[in-house]
Design a protein that fits this description.
By secondary structure, the chain is of the alpha+beta class. It contains two helices and six strands. It has helices at residues 51-59, 67-74, and strands at residues 5-9, 13-17, 23-28, 31-37, 44-49, 64-66. A hairpin with a 2-residue loop joins strand 3 (23-28) and strand 4.
């Protein structure tokens, strides 16, 4: 295992993400968000990250989901009237 990044939990303090599958990154227009869990309290940690951190995570083989283009390619609509 290799260290992917450090995580700061308000309740538990600093910890580390050890596997690339333990963190998700999504591009939403011009911004990026991450989602992971604290390895001590197991609470979800979700927030904004800057492009420099995204590039760093990509260098660690973390996949970045582009939600808007993924949606356009799939054309999927959940609920409501699908047209």
């Amino acid at each position: 295992m290799k260290v992917i990044c450090k995580l700061q939990c308000e309740d538990c303090g600093p910890s580390i993400v050890l596997k690339k599958d333990f963190i998700s990154v999504a591009k939403l227009g011009d911004s990026y968000q991450y989602a992971t869990r604290c390895r001590y309290c197991h609470r979800d940690k979700i927030g904004d990250i800057d492009e420099d951190m995204v590039l760093y995570l990509i260098s660690k083989d973390v996949f970045v989901h582009d939600w808007l283009s993924d949606f356009e390619e799939d054309g999927g609509v959940i609920g409501g009237d699908a047209k």
